């Protein structure tokens, strides 16, 4: 068989320019050779060509690799060949060489004969061409698909059924999710069906159970199906049932090693069971087991944005960095989390038994009054709105978090606690990539006494009080070492506020680095309701200022600051050196 | 630069953030709901201070965790505002009293030590058995150490857990006296005790060892008889002209037996059978605590 001479219009296939082609083919024998490292790709693309119905004359070699392509070309033994016979007799255009030995090879094609060119370069060039070709094909197919959809958008269609293949979700759970897509507002046109299909896809994907999802519209399989009825066939691949992770975390003034194990989709309703154990420097050991699930289908329609969580936990905390006491706690927590477009709500009930003990020999009398057991039984609501472009180093956007907690539903401590945390960032000069960040936090805790004496009730709130100071709080002060103090023990306070202004700029000459420079001013005060002159105390904040470097690791932010405290209360403990390292998630 | 850094903060403001504690007299931190402690160890030191004419205040903290050695009582010595308080426990209190009264610290004689052992081992074990483990006489004990709240199931669970831990710890102490040895053989372990011991390791046991009440009763009878004969018609148990540390210890257990155990209690009936011991207790309570039994 001989190669055919003629015009060649390649469409949706890979073009291979063969070096020294002129030695093997006469100028009149022009061939377009299709090369693919995977023959099945070629066949698929040929189908694509046929479907698009290009008028082409192709000489196509489906060869497994480039060397085979060359040998095939030498022997002119095509794997696949077709010729459109209706082009016979068409006058051939006069095409002239040279096809090699050109001063400027077409598209910078490496020449094997040239000095310094090798097969690798040739292969790289071919791969590049292949990628270009594939991109072109993809775009073409996308455009074609769009045309088909546009042409058929108003054709009558109805989503008749949704079939899921490859999932272990229970059928009642899937039925509850799909019910809204099938029953409510049934789709009447293809556009609506496509829209519904997309919604179904998004809804399922949001449960975060599948590593891959393929979606296909098939003619309806039901015996009662009518003309235009379609089934949405979803082929999914679930993530592994068991997930385990070990990690080392550093942040908020402590480091810890963690082990987590998670079981996904335990009962077929997107439920997760997770166990976590951690050992750290301040929370010396912690263990928790949590069960979370969407609201079950027999209550209401499950959605990925609303989850119920039940958790039992235990932790040992060492407060000795700022107060000579250790705390052991064990408890249970139940919460309902909903994610809305404007923010996230979290309703929580918590019952926790705290035991303060293992006092250091030099522990103060205030700490000794706090020692012992207490039970907190509380309900809380928190709301979070976060529009920051980056949670660790935001250049624009805002963050708002509110917390209201009432404790007194059967425990031994009674109080109402409120907290507000907010921050906002704005670019100053987009060219210089510098921006300013403002943040403000405040909170108050009001002891309610309950059945206990006022003094006793107040002393037992050590674990619930606010703490202030440290690299993620008011910088250049010790971690939790602002506010009320007895001897060397910082006791925490009932009312606090803190604010910060920081100006962040890129590292000089390296604007693309994750390392930035910052200048900051922080202020804050933490006081006890027992203070004889509460107003005066609140009006005299501790203030610090400095400059530093900020580095953003993906999960955390690290700061190295150089600064000094400017104003401090008599009981505040500042850093011993004008340098402070901070690692954490949320900074003032 | 090192010259400039100490100048910061540029301004220090005193806004009353320092906690203020002063003590003009010693303060004894005890288990208590009134002016007389219900803990035998606490009452022992309370009466010992009174025997020696030490002026002090009683502070009912009811939390052993507050103590430097996790046991009540402890004595907070007088201090001024801003001064670190010195806390004394056990024999340190005795040393303080001897220092204040100017008495020479003297080695106990053999018979004194023997008597003290009798009180602090045998009599204590007897009292604790009836106070914590004999059902008919220990009904009010949990409320004494961990007062019940009105309508609080959650606190009730915690309260009973703490009480059970306290019982477990005391049962080991009693069993050692009854068996006359320090190493006890572990006879049984419940699943919950095993789980807690694994999850939350502690020096205190999670499970009470069984107590042979009949054996304790025999020990109590012998001990009271011996103490009664030692006291005879003397005012103080060592036959001296003033009360001693042994008297303080003996009084604490006898007083609490008469005031905390119900009249039907075996131990209390045995004690009231020794008229000299009863009079001895009433006389000290009346003279030093201004209390009647």
What would the keywords be for this entry?
heterodimer; A: 588 residues; alpha+beta; Ubiquitin-like (UB roll); Porin; 3 domains; 16-stranded antiparallel beta sheet; three-stranded mixed beta sheet; 9 helices; 25 strands; 18% helix; globular; disordered N terminus; B: 293 residues; mainly alpha; Glutaredoxin; Glutathione S-transferase Yfyf (Class Pi), Chain A, domain 2; 2 domains; four-stranded mixed beta sheet; 10 helices; 6% strand
The CATH topology name of the largest domain in chain A reads Porin
So, CATH architecture of the largest domain in chain A? Beta Barrel
Q: Radius of gyration of chain B in whole Å, from Cα?
A: 22 Å
Q: Would you identify the CATH H-level superfamily of the largest domain in chain A?
A: membrane protein fhac: a member of the omp85/tpsb transporter family
User: What is the CATH C level class of the largest domain in chain B, in words?
Assistant: Mainly Alpha
Helix content of chain B: 40-55%
* Oligomer type: heterodimer
Helix content of chain A: 10-25%
Overall outline of chain A:
globular
Write down how many β-strands of chain A occur, each being a DSSP E stretch of 2 or more residues: 25
Please, how many domains of chain A? 3
Quick recap:
Chain A is an alpha+beta fold. In chain A, 18% of the residues lie in helices and 40% in strands. Chain A has helices at residues 21-24, 39-52, 66-75, 119-152, 171-182, 190-205, 365-370, 454-459, 534-538, and strands at 15-16, 33-34, 59-60, 80-81, 158-165, 210-219, 229-238, 242-251, 254-264, 272-280, 283-294, 306-318, 326-340, 343-357, 372-386, 397-407, 415-429, 434-447, 485-486, 489-490, 495-506, 515-527, 542-552, 557-569, 579-584.
Could you describe the 3D structure shown?
The complex is a heterodimer of chains A (588) and B (293). With 588 residues, chain A is α+β, with helices and mostly antiparallel strands. Chain A folds into 3 domains: 13-121, no CATH class; 158-238, membrane protein fhac (Ubiquitin-like (UB roll), Roll), CATH 3.10.20.310; 319-584, Beta Barrel (Porin). In chain A, 18% of the residues lie in helices and 40% in strands. In chain A, the strands form 5 sheets. In chain A, strands 8-9-10-11-12-13-14-15-16-17-18-21-22-23-24-25 form a 16-stranded antiparallel sheet. Chain A has a 3-stranded mixed sheet with strand order 5-7-6, with helices on one face. In chain A, a hairpin with a 4-residue loop joins strand 17 and strand 18. The model of chain A is unreliable at 1-84 (pLDDT under 50). The mean pLDDT of chain B is 90. Chain B is 49% helix and 6% strand. By secondary structure, chain B is mostly helical. Chain B has helices at 40-51, 91-101, 110-133, 141-145, 153-179, 191-199, 213-231, 245-260, 266-272, 275-289; strands at residues 11-13, 27-30, 57-60, 74-76, 87-89. In chain B, helix 3 runs antiparallel to helix 5, helix 3 (110-133) crosses helix 7 (213-231) and helix 7 (213-231) packs parallel to helix 9 (266-272). Chain B folds into 2 domains: 2-101, Glutaredoxin (3-Layer(aba) Sandwich), CATH 3.40.30.10; 111-293, Glutathione S-transferase Yfyf (Class Pi), Chain A, domain 2. The termini of chain B are far apart. The longest helix of chain B has 27 residues, at 153-179. Strand 24 (557-569) of chain A pairs parallel with strand 1 of chain B, so a sheet runs across the interface.
């Amino acid at each position: 068989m001989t190669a055919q001479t003629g015009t060649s219009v390649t469409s949706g296939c890979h073009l291979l320019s063969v070096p020294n082609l002129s030695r093997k083919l006469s100028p009149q024998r022009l061939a377009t050779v299709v090369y693919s490292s995977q023959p099945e790709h070629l066949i698929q693309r040929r189908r694509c060509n046929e479907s698009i119905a290009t008028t082409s004359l192709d000489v196509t070699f489906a060869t497994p690799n480039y060397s085979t392509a060359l040998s095939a070309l030498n022997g002119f033994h095509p794997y696949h060949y077709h010729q459109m016979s209706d082009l016979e007799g068409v006058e051939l255009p006069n095409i002239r060489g040279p096809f090699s030995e050109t001063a400027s090879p077409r598209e910078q094609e490496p020449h094997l004969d040239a000095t310094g060119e090798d097969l690798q370069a040739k292969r790289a060039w071919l791969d590049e061409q292949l990628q270009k070709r594939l991109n072109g094909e993809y775009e073409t197919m996308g455009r074609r698909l769009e045309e088909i959809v546009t042409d058929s958008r108003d054709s009558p269609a109805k989503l008749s059924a949704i079939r899921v293949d490859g999932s272990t979700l229970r059928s009642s759970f899937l039925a509850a999710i799909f019910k809204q897509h099938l029953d409510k507002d049934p789709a009447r046109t293809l556009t609506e069906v496509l829209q519904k299909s997309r919604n179904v896809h998004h809804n399922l994907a949001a449960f975060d159970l599948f590593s891959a999802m393929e979606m296909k519209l098939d003619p309806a399989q039901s015996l009662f199906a009518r003309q235009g009825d379609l089934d949405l066939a979803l082929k999914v691949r679930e993530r592994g049932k068991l997930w385990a992770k070990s990690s080392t975390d550093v942040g908020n003034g402590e480091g810890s090693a963690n082990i987590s194990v998670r079981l996904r989709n335990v009962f077929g309703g997107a439920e997760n069971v997770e166990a976590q154990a951690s050992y750290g420097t301040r929370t010396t050991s912690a263990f928790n087991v949590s069960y979370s699930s969407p609201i079950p289908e027999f209550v209401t329609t499950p959605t990925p944005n609303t989850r119920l969580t039940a958790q039992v936990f235990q932790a040992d905390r060492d407060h000795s960095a700022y107060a000579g006491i250790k705390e052991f706690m064990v408890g249970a927590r139940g919460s309902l989390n909903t994610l809305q477009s404007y923010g996230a709500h979290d309703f929580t009930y918590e019952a926790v038994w705290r035991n303060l003990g293992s006092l250091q020999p030099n522990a103060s009398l205030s700490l000794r009054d706090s020692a012992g057991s207490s039970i907190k039984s509380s309900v809380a609501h928190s709301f979070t709105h976060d529009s920051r472009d980056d949670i660790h180093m935001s250049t624009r956007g805002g963050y708002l978090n509110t917390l209201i907690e009432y404790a007194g539903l059967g425990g031994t401590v009674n109080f109402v606690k409120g907290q507000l945390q907010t921050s906002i960032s704005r670019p100053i000069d987009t060219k210089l990539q510098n921006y300013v960040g403002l943040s403000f936090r405040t909170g108050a805790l009001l002891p309610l006494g309950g059945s206990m004496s006022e003094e006793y009730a107040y002393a037992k709130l050590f674990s619930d009080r606010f703490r202030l100071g440290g690299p993620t709080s008011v910088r250049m002060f010790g971690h939790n070492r602002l506010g009320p103090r007895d001897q060397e023990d910082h006791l925490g306070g009932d009312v606090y506020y803190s604010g910060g202004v920081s100006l962040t700029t890129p590292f000089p000459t390296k604007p693309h680095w994750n390392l930035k420079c910052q200048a900051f001013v922080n202020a804050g005060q933490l006081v006890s309701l027992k203070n004889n002159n509460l107003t005066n105390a609140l009006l005299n904040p501790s203030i610090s200022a400095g400059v530093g470097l900020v580095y953003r690791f993906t999960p955390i932010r690290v700061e190295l600051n150089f600064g000094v405290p400017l104003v401090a209360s008599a009981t505040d403990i500042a850093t011993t050196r004008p340098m402070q390292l901070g690692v954490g998630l949320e900074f003032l | 630069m090192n010259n400039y850094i100490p100048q910061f903060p540029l301004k220090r403001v005193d806004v009353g953030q320092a906690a203020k504690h002063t003590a003009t007299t010693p303060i004894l931190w005890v288990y208590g709901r009134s002016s007389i402690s219900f803990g035998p160890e606490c009452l022992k030191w309370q009466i010992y201070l009174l025997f020696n004419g030490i002026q002090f205040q009683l502070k009912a903290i009811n939390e052993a965790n507050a103590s430097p050695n996790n046991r009540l009582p402890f004595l907070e010595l007088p201090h001024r505002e801003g001064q670190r308080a010195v806390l004394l426990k056990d024999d340190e209190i005795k040393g303080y009293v001897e220092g204040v009264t100017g008495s020479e610290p003297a080695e106990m004689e053999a018979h004194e030590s023997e008597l003290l052992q009798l009180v602090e081992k045998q009599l204590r074990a007897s009292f604790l058995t009836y106070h914590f483990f004999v059902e008919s006489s220990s009904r009010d004990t949990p409320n004494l150490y961990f007062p019940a709240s009105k309508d609080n199931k959650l606190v009730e669970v915690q309260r009973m857990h703490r009480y059970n831990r306290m019982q477990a710890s005391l049962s080991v102490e009693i069993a050692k006296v009854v068996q006359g040895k320090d190493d006890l053989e572990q006879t049984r372990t419940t699943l919950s005790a095993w789980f807690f011991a694994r999850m939350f390791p502690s020096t205190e046991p999670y499970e009470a060892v069984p107590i042979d009440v009949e054996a304790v009763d025999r020990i109590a009878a012998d001990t009271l008889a011996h103490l009664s004969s030692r006291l005879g018609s003397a005012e103080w148990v060592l036959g001296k002209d003033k009360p001693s540390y042994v008297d303080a210890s003996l009084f604490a257990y006898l007083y609490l037996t008469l005031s905390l155990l119900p009249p039907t209690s075996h131990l209390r009936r045995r004690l009231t059978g020794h008229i000299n011991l009863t009079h001895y207790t009433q006389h000290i309570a009346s003279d030093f605590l201004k209390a009647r039994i």
